[in-house]
Amino acid sequence: MTVQAGTAGAGLPLRLHHNAYVTADMEATRRFYEELVGMPLVATYCETDHLFGADRVYCHCFFALSDGGALAFFQFASPEDQALFGPAMPPSPFHHIALKVDAATQAAVHGRFRAAGVPEPSDDCYFLDHGYCQSLYVRDPNGLIVELTVDAPGIEDTDEERKRNAHADLARWLGGDHRSNNLYRPQ
């Protein structure tokens, strides 16, 4: 899905700078994102900050996206801080981060998961055809689901239609009419 500027005018955010999560095992996280997904580690900050009434010692790593954005992860030196700031991810496919990729990148990532012995379909690796995109879902060492999505050919026309009808579709659904408007998903 291609997201375009709304009607709000100037001041729209330029891009995602980073999404941040907490990990209990930075090396396992690094291997997953750098070696399996293919996102290079581009920055590691080793820091101490006085936050929320105490000194917090942590490592903060950034894994690059091609547009300059990143996924970032924190690991705390103190087990108490780790427990306070790093609760477990909920086991839900509806809590995930989706990254747009091309078909060759998706196939390469899928190949690396297969070579690593990740079974599929499983909770850790599966495909889903949304109609408007094809998605590979993988679970990282922290329980976070990462969706690697390839837009369907001609998605620009679909995006324009969805944009034109976005408010009306939302009002219809909130009003109790829950019929699907995804005419692109295979039956």
Automatic annotation (TrEMBL):
InterPro entries linked = Glyas_Bleomycin-R_OHBP_Dase, Glyas_Fos-R_dOase_dom, VOC_core
Q: Which Pfam families match?
A: Glyoxalase (PF00903)
Database matches in PROSITE patterns: VOC
- Name any one GO molecular function: lyase activity
* CDD domains for this protein: VOC
Q: Where in the numbering of this chain does the VOC domain appear?
A: 15-151
Keywords on this record?
Dioxygenase, Lyase, Oxidoreductase
- Name by which UniProt lists this protein: Catechol 2,3-dioxygenase-like lactoylglutathione lyase family enzyme
